[in-house]
Amino acid sequence: MFLKRFVFVHWGNVPDGEFEFGPVNLFSGANGSGKTTAADAIQTLMTAAHENLFHYNPGQDETTQRGRGGKRVRTLASYVLGCDDGSYARTGRTDGYIAGVFHPTQGETAEPFSAIVAVRAWLEQSGKQPLAREEDLVFFILPSVEVTLDMFIEERDGERHVVRLERIQEALIARCGRRAVERYDQKRAYLRRLYAALRGKRDSVTEREALAAARAFSRFMAYKPVTGINQFVADEVLERKDLGDAIRSVSSQLKTIHGMEREAQLLKDSAQLLEQASQHTQQYIERWADLETLRYIEARAGYDALQTSYLEACEERDGIARGLEENESELKLAAQRQEQIRGTLISLEAQRQGIPALQQKDALEAERRRLDAQVASAARELLTQDRQLQDNLRAARALEGLINAPSLIADLPHVTGMEAQRLLRQVCDTAQAGDDDVSGLLQRDLTGDLAMLERHLDEARAA
């Protein structure tokens, strides 16, 4: 980038106007012609009049900011008010502007832009000598815009006047558009954006880079005799550095490195501990996985066994259910058959009730059942009497044997007399004559054999 155009409005005693520059420019003229004033304007634009960066009157070597030969030290406010050795060309509240248009050099692809410094100053006359005071300071960056003098002049009451500071932003927006006008109220913010635009960037550089660039420009503008190229490079190009700071920096870095070594050792030890922990963890995980696998296999085997039992029980349940269904079907069929048979029986019974022979047979069957019950009752009594008779017979035979014994005859002659023996003999003979098998007779089926039944009855009566 190079400075192509510069605009002065209320700057020193330079007439308001535009000045075109080329790649190389030469300022020449007698003393007091304005060489220093123009150079200070350029320096103000490039340094924002930042403290400890700019040095007015560079051509007169007034870098210490002290007057020489009785000349007053120049300030930004004094330039706006047109001060020249204590006299002021503009004594009221005045707005001044300096603007530069920057163009890319051959080979650069960046777009041109404009930078503007707007200052309002007023003259304080309460002291012995009038003193220029700065009231307001504003900066503008206009990307892709080339400012001209007429942007700072407006018509009021039929006359041309400088645009007031409070309206300059609106005037620029009206001319260039709102997106093309960037306002900065802080010097450092303006310098960051200015030197970024000089590099072709759309954002801002760091504050350190901006201040270093502004300081280098200010040193370049200052007047110093050149004794040799080495001395010029050492003083103007290279930055002076304090070796003490460098040594302290190296010492601090060494301490930092030593601390980093200790931290590295701690990290190494921690890494080893982590590696050991990782190995133990891996072993634990493997053992846990084996244990869980065994548990799973055991659980799976139990599940399979239970599943098999469950399936068998389901099959058995299904078989039982099928059997129950079959039984229910058979029961329903049997009930149907039973109902049919019952109906048939009822029908046959009804038919039977209408036949006389069958009615007589039924009456005989009823009579037979009644007689069977009477026979059974009499048979029980007859068997009881038969058992008692048999017991009596056995007792009589025993007494007969005892009476005939010689010892008893000698001891009991009145018991063993002839009359007693005769009675016992008669009882035994009667028992033999009426001896009949009552139990066999009762168990014998005499149905249809009435003659045999009558003969047995006669024998029983005779006995």
Primary descriptors:
10 strands; rod-shaped; six-stranded antiparallel beta sheet; N-terminal domain of mukB; 463 residues
Number of strands: 10
Task: Please outline the major beta sheet.
Answer: 6 strands, antiparallel
Structural class: alpha+beta
Order of SSEs, N→C?
Answer: EEHHEEEEEEEHEHHHHHHHHH
Radius of gyration: 76 Å
Query: Which CATH architecture of the largest domain is right?
Result: 3-Layer(aba) Sandwich
For the terminal residues, how far apart are their CA atoms? 173 Å
Total domains, how many? Answer: 2
Give a description of the structure.
- The structure is a single chain.
- By secondary structure, the chain is an alpha+beta fold.
- The protein folds into two domains: 239 residues, N-terminal domain of mukB (3-Layer(aba) Sandwich); 89 residues.
- It has twelve helices and ten strands.
- The protein has a six-stranded antiparallel sheet with strand order 2-1-5-6-7-10.
- Strand 8 and strand 9 form a beta hairpin.
- About 3% of the residues have low confidence.
